[in-house]
Amino acid sequence: MVDRSFVTADETNVFIRELDRSYPLIERGEGMWLYDTAGNAYLDGVSGGAMVTSLGHGAVPEILKAVADQTKAISFLYNVHATTPAQERLARDLTSIAPDGFNRVHFVSGGTEANELALRMVRSYHVERGDEKRHLVVSPAQAYHGASVATFGLTGRPGLQAPYQPYIQQQPHIPPSTWLFDPTGQSALAALDEILDRDGERVAAFLIEPVSAASLPGYSPPEAFWRGLDERRRKHGFLVWFDEVVTGLGRTGTWFAADQMPIRPDVITTAKGLGAGFFPVGAMLVADHVYQAVANGSRSFEPGHTWDGAPLSCAVGSAVIAHLKRTGLVDTVRERGPWLLGELRRALEDCEMVREVRGRGFLLGVSYVDPRDGSQLLDPALQVAGRIDEEALQRLLLIYSTQPTRDGFAGDQTLLSPAFIATDTELEELVERFAASVKSVEAYVKAQSVGATR
């Protein structure tokens, strides 16, 4: 056991997330490494814990200079009253790397705000066109779209919604097209057809992560699903909205994951990688026809978040994009992602508890099953996700595992999303520590199974 510094609920004035956990007291970071107050070095396998620090921890001189220069000029201005060169510059920078036809963008502080804004946008689009019946947003049940009451309704996971259901506007959901239920995507399309047959005139949008993050790490539906979704969009008139809060700005090896999909969205939301951990900034981008609905209609759209388009956050966003372009890191992720996925698969190939290792770029996921049959989800009472995270922490590795089993669509899983600047040696170390953690928990699970049969 390595001696290191922790904080518990009884030792802090912070209202921490889980009161029964001890939290490492991290005082600084450098590249792929986090250092606690005792000097121990943790290998960061999830970019700050939330897939944010894509450029690693510590100083990036041109970004720090952008912060200093913008702060000296003007750090905050409410964009209801005026725009700024920083906001205008980031709008040009972001639309220049977005998919073709995305020429309008509105800036916010983060992913939840971006998705809440887009929820209003898809409603406004239809109202502007005289189709006021449309307000429903369909999405896969296993997803995560934010932590506000409105975005909880977009997230079809009972465990996240409870106990806030009285406040939540429930939205319709379809099962995800995973190996467990629907490897072809046809069942998901059939479920979507049921909703459209019943409520098609009220459906405003279909919302989906092109590559999932927290809920189904590294997962993307099969091509047949995307083709079928496009056909139904054309037939029924709803919008397709991509949640790229995680995947935007190079996480999957292209500027946006939309660049890899066989369908073009109408709305894109993004956040985490745009600020890269240096300052909170997110964005909603819309295709030209979505913008024109407002331009040809009321000519007014009222988002209204305080930090929307603030010059300091916009200056950071532009500096991040410039750094990614100068260093070629998006190309690096695209080129090295398949290698990292292969290393991870090789390290786990003899683990009977591992069902699937998947992902694109530097967004990878591992799903677990009962090692006795290789197909059933694990008993939630075993707390496999939590145990894997704790085993990794004992090995000074930071990862993120989840156990969204309440709806039966997914079981225990782990997300890996290292910084783009990771060296091959650091990635190999990440895989080695992670595989050791999984194998330790697998041994525990098998021992519990043996004990239960005696």
- The poorly predicted ranges are none
Describe the biggest sheet? 7 strands, mixed
Structural class: alpha/beta
Please count the beta strands (DSSP E, at least 2 residues each): 17
End-to-end separation: 32 Å
Shape summary? globular
Describe the structure.
With 454 residues, this protein is α/β, with parallel strands linked by helices. The protein is 39% helix and 17% strand. It is built from 14 helices and 17 strands. The strands form four sheets. A seven-stranded mixed beta sheet has the order 6-12-11-10-9-7-8, sandwiched between helices. Strands 3-4-5-15 form a four-stranded mixed beta sheet. Strand 13 (354-360) and strand 14 form a beta hairpin. Helix 3 runs parallel beside helix 11 (311-327) and helix 7 runs parallel beside helix 8 (223-236). The two termini are 32 Å apart.
The gist of it:
The chain is of the alpha/beta class and 454 residues long.
List the helices and strands and how they pair.
Elements: E1 6-7, E2 23-24, E3 26-30, E4 33-36, E5 41-44, H1 47-51, H2 61-73, H3 85-97, E6 102-108, H4 111-128, E7 136-140, H5 149-154, H6 158-161, E8 173-174, H7 186-199, E9 203-208, H8 223-236, E10 239-244, E11 267-270, H9 272-275, E12 282-287, H10 288-295, H11 311-327, H12 329-348, E13 354-360, E14 363-368, H13 384-394, E15 397-398, E16 400-402, E17 413-416, H14 424-453
Parallel strand pairs: 5-15, 7-8, 7-9, 9-10, 10-11
Antiparallel strand pairs: 1-2, 3-4, 4-5, 6-12, 11-12, 13-14, 14-17, 16-17
Helix pairs in contact: 2-11, 3-11, 4-10, 7-8, 12-14, 13-14
